[in-house]
């Protein structure tokens, strides 16, 4: 499996678009040193909240995936 480039990734799905976040190796290394590990997913959560909030405010339906990414549904999309 190819490694993702760090940052926001948007790709097409049957239902709409998949929005995913991948932290850089540097950020991951810094976050790994933090007590409790909560910082590790902090950036991902912040990005997902911002994208979800923006797309919802623009009238799109947003749903989550099992691995924590989000799907922005097109009109008539079913989330598959």
What's the arrangement of secondary structure elements?
Layout: E1 7-12, E2 16-22, H1 25-32, H2 42-57, E3 61-64, E4 70-73
Antiparallel strand pairs: 1-2, 2-4, 3-4
Write a brief caption for the model.
With 80 residues, the protein is an alpha+beta fold. The protein has helices at residues 25-32, 42-57; strands spanning 7-12, 16-22, 61-64, 70-73. It has two helices and four strands, in the order ββααββ.
Number of strands: 4
- N- and C-termini, Cα separation: 22 Å
Query: Roughly what fraction of the amino acids lie in strands?
Result: 25-35%
Strand order in the largest sheet: 1-2-4-3
User: How do the helices and strands follow one another from N- to C-terminus?
Assistant: EEHHEE
Largest sheet: 4 strands, antiparallel
Radius of gyration: 14 Å
Q: What is the averaged pLDDT score?
A: 76
| Low-pLDDT residue spans | none
Fraction of helical residues: 25-40%
Give the helix/strand class: alpha+beta
Alpha plus pi helix count: 2
What is the multimeric organization of the chains shown? single chain
Instruction: Sum up the overall morphology in one term.
Output: elongated
